[in-house]
Design goal:
There is one protein chain. The protein is an alpha/beta fold. It is built from 15 helices and 12 strands. The strands form 3 sheets. It has a 4-stranded parallel beta sheet, with helices on both faces. The protein has a 4-stranded parallel beta sheet with strand order 6-5-7-8. A 4-stranded parallel beta sheet has the order 10-9-11-12, with helices on both faces. Helix 6 links the parallel strand 5 and strand 6. The longest helix has 17 residues. The structure holds iron/sulfur cluster. Iron/sulfur cluster binds next to loops.
Length: about 300
């Protein structure tokens, strides 16, 4: 079909089907603009729980839609592009984690939200980049042995902040992990007054030269409150869109042009329209897996209070 005005058609279908569109900050700008809610993965899944919509179109990657389905089992959750996956989530398998658990039965498994439902189901507690430090410290304060999976960088950062040692899986987000410090320093040379702000999925060498480290939501909040006028942003480039919209008087430079997640950028307006129109790409999660994953997610919510 030609000449479809995707934006207005999506609005029409949303009303007709009592649907809601959730988009992650790393989505393309035009996809963010048709969303009812914009946020990070967990925050969007919690929004999915509170909405009375019958259909949730989750513009993000697979594990995010899966998390929304786990938390809202009675709603129809659709993912516009079925093969939009998270490379970090692929760095840990059910088989490998089960093997580790069998060999270390006393170790608590703390898992970052960027994982499949099967990995969440094998975990004692989930965490995000916002509450990760708090949750890790809670278990360490209880004298527990812990394994943090799968992001080695957030794990190493938590070790540095807490001054305590624990086991960390060897996974990472390649988009953040391979950010070249020289590129960031080059930006600083070009914009000496700009503050460097970074996501903890970056390596320690980037975090050490940063003026502020935080989750996507924390970076957005920091920028809003800061008196600085320029920022070098070391996370996925999609976040520049809400940063610019919310702070028209401030200027943002991306730490490096490599900070773009290929899978997050797969979703186009046309995909959002097609999946809403035909109600395709529905996400299903095995009931037993879902039950165990919810338990780990609820433990996180309890410990985050
Ligand atoms: S930016 Fe990294 S962690 Fe986020 S979805 Fe892409 S690969 Fe996964």
């Amino acid at each position: 079909m030609k000449n479809i005005d995707y934006k207005s058609e999506i609005q029409r279908l949303k009303k007709e089907k009592n649907a809601v569109i959730l988009a992650h900050y790393y989505q393309e700008d035009d996809v963010q603009d048709v969303a009812d809610f914009l946020g990070d993965s967990l925050n969007l899944s919690q929004t999915a729980v509170s909405t009375d919509a019958d259909i949730i179109v989750f513009c993000g990657v697979h594990f995010m839609a899966e998390t929304a389905k786990i938390l809202s089992p009675n709603k129809k959750v659709l993912l516009p592009v079925m093969n939009a996956d998270c490379l970090m989530a692929q760095t840990i398998t059910k088989k490998d984690l089960q093997k580790y658990k069998d060999e270390h039965p006393d170790t608590k498994i703390i898992t970052y939200v960027n994982t499949t439902a099967e990995i969440k189901a094998l975990s004692d507690c989930i965490c995000t980049s916002t509450n990760g430090l708090k949750i890790i410290e809670h278990y360490l304060d209880q004298g527990e042995k812990i394994l943090y999976t799968p992001d080695q960088n957030l794990g190493k950062y938590a070790m540095k902040i807490s001054g305590k040692q624990f086991e960390v899986w060897n996974g990472c987000c390649p988009i953040h992990h391979f950010l070249d410090k020289r590129k960031v320093l080059k930006q600083k040379e070009l914009h000496p007054d700009a503050l460097i702000i970074a996501h903890p999925e970056c390596q320690l060498d980037i975090l050490e030269i940063s003026d502020y480290v935080g989750s996507t939501a924390q970076l957005l909040s920091f920028v809003k409150k800061s008196e600085a006028k320029e920022f070098i942003v070391c996370t996925e480039k999609g976040v520049l869109h809400p940063m610019k919209t919310q702070n028209p008087d401030k200027t943002f430079y991306l730490g490096s042009p490599t900070l773009s997640c290929h899978d997050m950028k797969k979703t186009r307006l046309e995909d959002v329209y097609n999946c809403l129109l035909n109600e395709t790409n529905e996400i299903f999660v095995d009931e037993e897996v879902s039950r165990k994953a919810v338990k780990a997610l609820n433990t996180m919510l309890e410990l985050s209070k």
